[in-house]
Structures are given as structure tokens and as C-alpha cells.
Amino acid sequence: MVLMFLNGGGMRGGPLHEQLQGAPLCCVARSAPKYHYFSVGDRFPAMYEGGSGSVVGEVYDLPLAVLRDHLVPAEPPELELGVVELEDGAACLATVLRPSFADSPGLTDITSVGDWRAYLASR
């Protein structure tokens, strides 16, 4: 089992939520204020360390087999597994933007919003 911080389509009501295979929600949380947060072509969000923004998400207690067999295969190629810091200092797995995509033209900085659902609602 691992703690997984989700901040996009894997959250409740999102198109990837079924990939969690019923894994329990532990809590709604925020990341530490040290990330850039991007919309990638308005398809999904991506965190990238080195900023000053905090990101809203959900923490799930996820079996490694579910991560391996369901969640990771459903993620786009722009994302990879990483470890992020939550607001309370805890470490948590998350999908983050691959460094090779950090300068991509399709990124929209949504750090000031810090919440994928709020961003989508504002478009």
C-alpha cells in the first residue's frame, strides 16, 4: 500500500477515478507551497517542483498492484511518478510533469488557481 496524492482526473468524479479500483480516500489535502501547477492542453493538470504554489488534491491508500496495473498505464506520457510534499510535511507519491516537458508550448500556468476542478469551472 502507498499513499497517492491525486490532483486531476483520478479524484472523485474524474474520468480516471475508476482506475483506483475502490481504493479508500484518506483525506483531501494540499501540497506544500513549492510547486508550479499547469494545465496541459486543458486535458489534465501537472505539478512541477520549483514554484511557490500549493495544489489541492485527494490522498488515497492505494495497493501497489492497482498503481502498476491500472493508474500508471492510464496516465499520459507527459507525467511520471514522483514524490511530493504535502502541506503538513508528509511525503506522498504523485504523478508529476516530466522534466522533458517543462518547456512545452501546450502548458498553461494555473498555479494561482491551484485546483484542477476550480480551473475547469472557470473556463
Automatic annotation (TrEMBL):
Coiled coil: none annotated. Residues 3-121 form the Allophanate hydrolase C-terminal domain. Pfam families: AH_C. This is Gamma-glutamylcyclotransferase. It comes from Amycolatopsis azurea DSM 43854.
